[in-house]
Design brief:
single chain, about 180 residues, about 55% helix, about 0% strand, 8 helices, mainly alpha
Length: about 180
């Protein structure tokens, strides 16, 4: 039984018993800043810079996550437009020595692009036992946020789950599949 707090003159009611909130007269305008996909018109993000300019912007951003996020999104747009750019990012990720924020942003740019070639490169990074475990786990974490992975990507992740070679990687791949 619910108790009535002191000073309250009306009985408590359960949330399920309360009248539903009428939101029919409210538009989505206040939410657009948080969910741009609610806008029916396309958002003009301006012209794309070159890959090298976007990469320089990402490197320069350092620990400034706002600047890094903007650079990552621009890189993702470039990756959607160019398979050659996807290959360049994959080559960079295979080389050691990238600063951790840059590495993470490049991984996220591939996952955000989510093109067949980008997903293929992400899967290849996960499957490459010569890559550091941290990189492979970060790739799986970014892949969990991809909206619509291709069937080949899902199959490759399932193989990682059932490979029985590394429990940490299998667990992370399972969580990626579940996301």
């Amino acid at each position: 039984p619910l108790r009535e707090p002191r000073g309250c003159h009306r009985p408590l009611e359960r949330v399920a018993d309360a009248d539903p909130i009428d939101t029919s007269g409210q538009g989505s305008e206040p939410l657009v800043a948080f969910f741009p996909e609610l806008v029916s018109a396309p958002i003009d993000r301006g012209p794309l810079r070159t890959f090298d300019e976007a990469l320089a912007s990402l490197t320069k951003a350092g620990d400034n996550w706002h600047a890094r996020l903007a650079a990552r999104d621009e890189l993702a747009r470039l990756l959607v437009a160019s398979n050659a750019a996807v290959e360049r990012v994959a080559v960079m990720l295979r080389r050691a020595g990238l600063a951790e924020p840059v590495e993470r942003s490049l991984i996220e740019a591939l996952a955000t692009a989510a093109t067949p070639s980008a997903q293929s490169q992400l899967v290849a990074l996960v499957a490459d036992g010569a890559r550091p475990m941290g990189l492979r786990v970060n790739v799986l974490g970014a892949m969990a946020l991809m909206g619509d992975p291709y069937e080949t990507t899902i199959d490759a992740l399932a193989k990682v789950v059932y490979a029985k070679t590394d429990g940490v990687l299998a667990s992370q791949a399972g969580m990626t599949l579940a996301a």
